Amino acid sequence: MSYFFNEAARVEHLEHVAYYESCQIGLGARYLLAFDAAMGTVCEAPDRFRVEFPPAIRKYRVPGFPYNILYRIVGSEDGQLKRRDNVMRPGYWLGRL
Fold it and tell me: How far is residue 58 CA from its own chain's centroid?
């Protein structure tokens, strides 16, 4: 399975990488590695994770960071994936899916 971000989610994701790196050298890289590993887990078997927000939005937590990957399966090949902050602005991401 491949994936894509919408533009707003992509920009926000890159801002979080930069934020973590500004907090501590190497932390942005660790976040990016954790995120990439989480995306690999989701892409291996996207149906493995339960639907959290009907009718079809699924969720997987990024290990070690306060973020979830929210996604829906689009067709048989592609998924639309979002990264959601678990702390700030709950629900703001719904319009992106």
Answer: 11
**pLDDT band (50, 70, 90) for residue 2:** confident
If you ran DSSP here, which 8-state letter would residue 74 be given? E
- b/e map of 19-46 (b: 16 or more CB within 10 Å)? ebbeeeeeebeebbeebeebbebbeeeb
| DSSP, residue by residue, 6-57 | -HHHHHHHHHHHHHHHHHSTTHHHHHHHHHHHHHHHHHH-GGGSPEEETTTE
Q: How far apart are CA 9 and CA 13, in angstroms?
A: 6
Residues 4/81, Cβ–Cβ less than 8 Å = yes
Tell me the pTM.
Answer: 0.73
